[in-house]
Design brief:
CATH class of the largest domain: Alpha Beta
Helix content: 40-55%
Shape: globular
Order of helices and strands: HHEHEHEHEEHEEHEHEEEHEHHHHH
Structural class: alpha/beta
Number of helices: 14
Mean pLDDT: 98
CATH topology of the largest domain: TIM Barrel
Low-confidence stretches: none
Strand order of the largest sheet: 1-2-3-4-6-8-9-12
Number of strands: 12
Bound molecules: L-rhamnitol, zinc ion
Largest sheet: 8 strands, parallel, barrel
CATH superfamily of the largest domain: Divalent-metal-dependent TIM barrel enzymes
CATH architecture of the largest domain: Alpha-Beta Barrel
Strand content: 5-15%
Radius of gyration: 22 Å
Number of domains: 2
Length: 422
């Protein structure tokens, strides 16, 4: 039997298996195909950006470790890498850009000087691929961020510089939304914090609040852009105090009726981000997730089909909020083939979502409502052993992307022909 016939047959059997527990796989795949994951530009070059040649990530309390050859050094290379990754992932996805990846054409453009003209070629590229773009202000890798404080700094000059930067980033986000006809989500993450014990925590947080108020005072059409704020527990060099903590941003987002970003790596290691979904949605309309895999700290390892990612997708689906979430990836591993990292991580996030959509949720909920605890648990357990892989393979085949591990040789070849020559 040839491979595609095998995949088709396995799927047909799987479809019946799922129908037995009340799940319509065709409907599930249709829903899955509408989920657009935002692939982050920064996995391709270890968060370097294009402000100057050979730019590297510095400060911000984040780190990319490893020196695997082949990282993207130019915009063209990064675009080529992303196109390769998209071709190995089923479905139509998005692109997530950081401000320091502008098309500066060799000129030094400081952060408070960037404008839509530096992102025109990105919009054209995204248009040619038919994908939406999300955006991020960049408050790190810059001498004015060296103190570890930007928009929460007591230094007015520093603060105003970064306020101006973020304002411009919002304008650029609006531009992307208009140009592409797809809303651009602008995520504000400020690394602000201190290494040592800080007396004036209250003051820094009230400065941060004021800065955000000023940044967000201009209103944009929500069709084109939406702002989110991303909280964090700590960063390298910001161990003692991080101004934009979860309580701070949860409060800020609720008070200002705006989106919140939850990054899986930004909480205590035993805390489950998945459990926050149904809590936060009581007060906030939309959430952005930064899907990543923290090991011992916010290490941003490549996403895999881990328990936490599965639980997160389940909570999103079980709360019936799939249409109210944006899913962005936020890992940067410089120690393995970087295109491989995109493909593994995005496929894993999609697999987790597919698994959640395949759960027999209606029956599970009915059992729960009836107090049939044994039945519910039994069904939850048995659902884990249903032939999910056959559905996934079929989805990949239908979307004309490699099935199973067959993307490995494709990436090996790309490495040989393209990455190794950089
Ligand atoms: C840092 C945050 C943030 C960054 C990107 C590069 O801990 O997660 O989202 O990873 O903006
Ligand atoms: Zn993040």
């Amino acid at each position: 039997m040839d491979k595609s016939t095998r995949i088709q047959k396995a799927y047909e059997i799987a479809r019946e298996e799922y129908a037995d527990i009340g799940v319509d796989t065709e409907k599930v795949l249709n829903r899955l195909s509408k989920a657009a994951i935002s692939l982050h530009c920064w996995q391709a070059d270890d968060v370097g950006g294009f402000e100057k040649p050979d730019a590297v990530l510095s400060g911000g309390g984040i780190q990319a470790t490893g020196n695997y050859p082949g990282k993207a050094k130019t915009i063209d290379q990064l675009r080529q890498d992303l196109e390769k990754a998209y071709s190995l992932i089923p479905g139509k996805h998005r692109f997530n850009l950081h401000a320091l990846y502008g098309d500066f054409k060799g000129k030094l453009v400081d952060r408070d000087q960037i404008g839509t003209e530096h992102f025109k070629s990105w919009a054209d590229w995204a248009k040619s691929l038919g994908i939406g773009v999300d955006f991020n202000c960049s408050l790190f890798s810059h001498p004015k961020a060296d103190s570890g404080l930007t928009i929460a700094s007591k230094d007015k000059g520093i603060r105003n510089f970064w306020i101006e930067h973020v304002k411009r980033c919002r304008e650029i986000s609006d531009f992307f939304g208009k140009e592409l006809g797809k809303r651009c989500v602008h995520n504000i993450w400020a690394p602000d914090g201190t290494k040592e014990l800080t007396v004036d925590r209250y003051k820094h947080r009230s400065i941060l609040k004021d800065s955000l108020d000023e940044i967000l005072s201009k209103k944009y059409d929500k069709k084109n852009m939406a702002d989110t704020v991303e909280a964090k527990l700590f960063g390298i060099g910001a161990e003692a105090f991080t101004a934009g903590s979860h309580e701070f941003y949860l409060g800020y987002a609720v008070a200002n009726n705006m989106m919140l970003c939850l990054d899986i790596g930004h909480f205590h290691p035993t805390e489950q981000v998945s459990d926050k979904v149904s809590a936060v949605f009581q007060f906030i309309d939309e959430l952005l997730f930064h899907v990543t895999r923290p090991i011992r700290w916010d290490s941003d390892h490549v996403v895999t089909l881990s328990d936490e990612v599965r639980a997160l997708m389940q909570e999103i689906v079980w709360a019936d909020k799939l249409e109210k979430v944006c899913i962005g990836l936020d890992f940067f591993d410089a120690s393995i083939n970087r295109i491989g990292a995109y493909v593994i991580g995005t496929r894993a996030a999609l697999k987790a979502l597919l698994l959640a959509l395949l759960d027999p949720i209606d029956t599970m909920r009915k059992y729960e409502d009836n107090g049939q605890g044994f039945e519910k648990l039994a069904l939850m357990e048995e659902a884990k052993a249903k032939p999910f892989g056959a559905v996934w393979d079929y989805y990949c085949m239908k979307n004309n992307v490699p099935v199973g591990e067959t993307f490995i040789p494709v990436i090996q070849q790309y490495e040989k022909e393209v990455l190794s020559k950089r």
